[in-house]
Amino acid sequence: MVGNATVLEVWSLASYVSTTWEPTGPTPDLLNQNLLDWGQQPTSASDSEAFSGLRTTAVMPSDCHVHYPQLKGIVTRLYCRQGYYLQMHPDGALDGTKDDSTNSTLFNLIPVGLRVVAIQGVKTGLYIAMNGEGYLYPSELFTPECKFKESVFENYYVIYSSMLYRQQESGRAWFLGLNKEGQVMKGNRVKKTKPAAHFLPKPLEVAMYREPSLHDVGETVPKAGVTPSKSTSASAIMNGGKPVNKSKTT
């Protein structure tokens, strides 16, 4: 049974290894067995061949000369149950498309915690983030707003919820979602039982990632010779965008 296991756990991807790891692709038999364990069966010879062709690559910085801890993730497309593939445009804008061949639909799914992932556009290098009002936006830096809990829902669809924000009174999670027109929705308007929140990852290859550095919400990308700054309006916020009283303890 899959239970509450994540996609990365099912594919045996959420693990740390050293940079001395030699990339070797999983065998077709192993990949097909993983699919069967996950409850999916290739529906045709072409489907089987597609999964059997999964590659393993190392995504490393060009100046990497030391032994960084590595994260094993996947390059994937995310197919929404509404009938669209999630895509990120060059400017970071998010929406859905029915075209499954465009590179704008490719995402790095990087494990950054227990059943927690970062979703990064392959072409843009930008992370998907959700702010305190439930809006999705692209982030150059990896911040707490870029962390999403990954859970396997019924029929093996996956749901992604913000790790930072949820409804203040009910505690209901805020989810990544697309509406029937393929437009992104506010996280607090998406219900986990609806097709808008259901995504089916379609992995293309296994990849090794350097663990992203965690930055504060509102921190900006430093320019050459300029000290990094932080937005004055980006105070710690949780639960529907209301400021957190740091003087109180729970």
UniProtKB/TrEMBL annotation:
This is Fibroblast growth factor. The keyword Cell inner membrane does not apply. Belongs to the heparin-binding growth factors family. GO terms for molecular function: growth factor activity. Residues 218-250 are annotated as: Disordered. SMART domains: FGF. The keyword DNA repair does not apply. The gene is FGF14. The lineage of its organism: Eukaryota, Metazoa, Chordata, Craniata, Vertebrata. Keywords: Growth factor. It holds the Pfam family FGF. InterPro entries: Fibroblast_GF_fam, IL1/FGF. It comes from Sus scrofa (Pig).
